[in-house]
Amino acid sequence: MSSVSGISITKELEHEFSSFISSGHRALIATIEQEAITFQETIEGSSDIGADLDFIGTKLVPNEPRYLIVTDDTHDGENKKFAFILFVPDNAKVRSKMLYASSSSLLQRQLGGASNFTRQIYWTEIEEVSAKGWKEHLAHEKLDAPLTREEQSLQDVREKEADQMFGTNARRSHVVAGGSIHAVSASNGNLPIQLSEEAKLALEKLTQGPGAIGLQIDSKGETLVLTEKSRTGESVDKNELVETVIDSVNPQYTVFKESSDGNAIFIYTCPTASKVKERMVYAVNRKPASNIVSNSGIKVEKELEGSSGSDIIDEIVFGAAAVPSHAAPTKARFSRPKPPGRK
Q: Domains of the chain, with CATH numbers?
């Protein structure tokens, strides 16, 4: 499966992570090469996480982002847990920053998600990848405080990227406390994205029966509008969903509900040929769009993302939460690494 940025995960990385979680080693470093997240190396380390982070810092290049997966000794529990660190230097290329940031959630999900990772950390300076940086992060976690130094740096990075992509006066999103992104319209920097009346009616119908509706952002970037190929009040099979409802050319949010009494799947697709501005706009509005759907009375059971409908069809067909028991797999699918402590 690939992310909306078109980045995929190599089988080598999947294999190395499976070995890493049972190895007792301190860290695994991953990088993006040739449009794929790939394994770089593992660090054996010692019993001192601070000293190990000091050493890991020497393995990094000041202007090149990396993913760091670090064995977290501070976690209280029977199973081994890990810290997921996104290292994105301030002076890295803008495209590189975007690729690493937009593919981060995909990588975490593919490697076990919350069942493996106790904390997510954003660092922008090599000096932060150190015993001192780790201690500062843990101290800030215990405080109900404003942004940490690394979070403030990440906020600055995101705001600068938004300025470069859209211009200061037309910025389509702003970053709030904690480094999260709040969706706003293009014409008014403080106006949350809205839902068209037609889209509201379609979502209301979807609360009462099956169907699949597509939502796209209008040209002004202010409103979620209903696509022409949306269907409510009738069953839509998975092939129709991929071939008809999901737009193969433009980014789209799709809400798919297989039965009247079932839950829905929220799908975000962004074709690789989409313009960079479109990718950014849809990426920052994804969570608000999902919240709008949930607030409409539709229970969203899972969220999927991909560059096309074909990217997410396997997740729909084989995903246990979204598929009835009689749905039989038709082709092989990668088995994600099992979390530590499970058989």
A: 8-142 (3.40.20.10), 196-318 (3.40.20.10)
